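Problem 12. The chain below contains 432 residues. Write out its predicted structure in token notation.
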Amino acid sequence: MSDVPARKRAALQDGAPSAVPGAVSLPATGDGARRARRNRRRSSGRRRSIGFGVVVVGLVCLLVGLVGFGYRNLSSVGDDPAPIEATPTSVVPDEAVPPPPRALVIQQGTDGGIVGVTILVVAEGGEGGDLVFAPVGSMVEVPSFGLSPLRDAFALGGLPLLQQAVENLFGITFDEVAMLTPAELTSLVEPAGVLRVELPSAVEVVTPAGRVETVFAAGPVDIAPAAVPELLEQRGSGSDLDRLVRHQAFWRAWLAAVGGGADVAEAGGAPGLGAIITQLGAGEVGYDLLPVEVLATGTGPDDDLYAVQGAELDALVAEIAPGAAGTSSARVRVQVLNGTGVPGLAQQVQPALVPAGAVVSLTGNADRFDYETTQVVFYRDEDLESARAVQRALGVGEVVRSLVALDVVDVTVVIGADFVAEATTTTTEPGA
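Solution.
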């Protein structure tokens, strides 16, 4: 990540010492209303839908910011001189039946930014499933950069960093990850031909001359494959949530066509995506929005910001991916601190932690950059096993008990030179 451009939030990037370490406050959780609505829908057996026109989210005036909870000097863990040995118990039990396939689909706009983040989960049995749409302005923990919008994760680290941010948020991994340019999206949809898409409202834009122009009319509209990228990219006069209504309408029409026998073209770079879409089209599909609250809205594409509602997200993941590591708020909250000065280390740690049932809640720098051995620090006796699981997932380091209490996370990982050496060895092995 040494080639990452300078940003306003560069102070949050690990690899550069900070005089005043800080932590990012996590968004408040929801009130459970979304879970109750979902349960009612499930009991009625009806197809789920986002229902943006019914759900009204409040405007929060103050953005989530930095709050200093006071990092303790991590050298104090040395006051407990005997590191706790890790046990050989496996972190993730072997599954007799592999989970249904999942895909992450990212739509890229004409300007190179992202305009759509869609999660596809096939149902058990291989027919139908769920789609989840995430606003690109959703504030999530981005490894090495702290709390940032999803669109910034892509701008800062491309598809790999965006994938890490989404996997860390949901606590699941993906079998296929596809970045679709306008041309690739058109090719993917082309076998289905013209789609009849039911648009709940017109898509209007203001021309440079000040006139209001209707790009897509409300109601049933015939959309040719070549027009699909514009349909999904145009923000119109509404918010990003309004745009996601169109995303849902498009996917509903496309999957209906696939279920009716239309083929799906092979996606470049994600050869299994077509099979996942075909499986979804073969049965009932639920449509959900990442549970968020509005933080800010504006007229520009980068003005919308949303806070993720933690408890509501837990309920959603529990429904669409039962048995996944992230289906419970009991996920181990991990803070990752860079103890070597090598940039971007949090991005190497995070992929190992999600399958182990952990979530990277905070990232930053340690008090110094000369740690030789990675330290997995826990603060309460009941978190010892969680710390051991994290250590086993990393494959290096030692588990130690801190004498200083910390409540915002369960475990802190201070990355040492041993992790850097192990990661370098792994990536340079033949065939790796």
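Discussion. The CA atoms of residues 86 and 388 lie 5 Å apart. Students who got a different answer should revisit the alignment rule from Section 12.3.
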